[in-house]
Amino acid sequence: MNPTDYPVHVAAADGSDADARLPSQLSPDEFRVLASVGVSRAVLPGEELFKRGEDAQSMFLVDTGEVRLCFDDGLADKLLGPGQYFGELAVFIGRHQRFARAVAETPGVLYEITQDAFQALIDQEPAHVARFMRRSFAYLVAGEHQLVQSLRRRNEDLLQTLDTLRQTRSELTVAQQLVRSDDLTGLANRRGLYRYLDELGHQPLAGHRLALLLVDIDHFKQINDRSGHLAGDAALRAIAEEVRRMAGPLELPCRLGGDEFALVLRVADRGELANRALGLLAAVRSLRLPSLGESRLSVSVGGAFCADPGGWAAWYSEADRALYAAKRQGGDAWRLDE
Ligand SMILES: Nc1nc2c(ncn2[C@@H]2O[C@H](COP(=O)(O)OP(=O)(O)OP(=O)(O)O)[C@@H](O)[C@H]2O)c(=O)[nH]1
């Protein structure tokens, strides 16, 4: 066999080939020549020949028994048997740190060849040594190539996993948005409102006051009864649109449930809050929905300023009191709880 034709078999980097054997099998002739400059040494199972990271000064031939090379870093171990060699870089390139740990797997006999002994062999048997080195380098290059391939495959797997994670994250974001919004109107729901209030606690208000407007449709039950549930839904969507239009970019329009909506606003003062509430009353009053025929829509609005966004219950009940004051007034009106 041509020296470079030796089948090269390197254990897979994923450790799937734990019992891989190096094909670095020496011919009896090569073994004899190399062993002639080595020192024979008997080893017992578990005996450590060198550690990973240790300064390398000699190479080894396995005469009998087996030796395990442990690379760690997720690479599979390699098991070497009679006629195989390892640690050869120590005699090729001189001092370097060992890549692996070598441990005797079974009782056996090894030949240890030092750098000086190898140097002497180069002078005595240049043709043999040249052939041996050529074959060893071919093996090392092929091993390196397989390692690069395996790292590339691993990298591709990682990129794919990353893609899947990104997709899952965006699906999660969509799912979170759905969980926090109302199906019928697309406005935030109660869960969305609580989340918004949580986040509000950490944001500066820049000279504004936080205010809540509670909005409830007047006589909505009658609308459903007279025009049907679908017409009622259309009315809810149309009013939701007006509530949404009334909200600025940092403000939250939401549907709390049934025919009740809420707007969390940032206003300068009472006057601005009144204008926003009156604007909403007027916008709803001017709605004309074909599905409602001659029936007109109106809402009642209750407002309250907020002392603490964490104290939602108190804030809500103040706005609710104002809302019912507006209802008692006959609806289509707004009141502020002061
Ligand atoms: N079409 C429709 N109706 C709903 C929906 N959710 C709740 N409703 C109805 O909204 C109505 C609310 O009625 P009430 O709470 O009595 O209020 P109201 O008739 O507006 O009375 P006032 O508030 O006192 O003016 C009920 O008849 C509910 O069935 C919905 O998603 N779609």
UniProtKB/TrEMBL annotation:
EC number(s): the record gives 2.7.7.65
Lineage: superkingdom: Bacteria
CDD domains tied to this protein: CAP_ED, GGDEF
Q: Which positions fall inside the Cyclic nucleotide-binding domain?
A: 22-122
Q: Which residues form the GGDEF domain?
A: 208-338
- InterPro entries according to UniProt: cNMP-bd_dom, cNMP-bd_dom_sf, Diguanylate_Cyclase, GGDEF_dom, Nucleotide_cyclase, Rev_trsase/Diguanyl_cyclase, RmlC-like_jellyroll
Reaction catalysed by this enzyme: 2 GTP = 3',3'-c-di-GMP + 2 diphosphate
Indicate where this protein is primarily found.
Answer: cytoplasm
Q: Where are the transmembrane segments?
A: none
SUPFAM superfamilies (alphabetical): cAMP-binding domain-like, Nucleotide cyclase
Compartments annotated for it: namely: Cytoplasm
Query: What NCBIfam families does the entry give?
Result: GGDEF
Would you tell me the protein name for this molecule? diguanylate cyclase
Which organism does this record belong to? Answer: Arenimonas soli
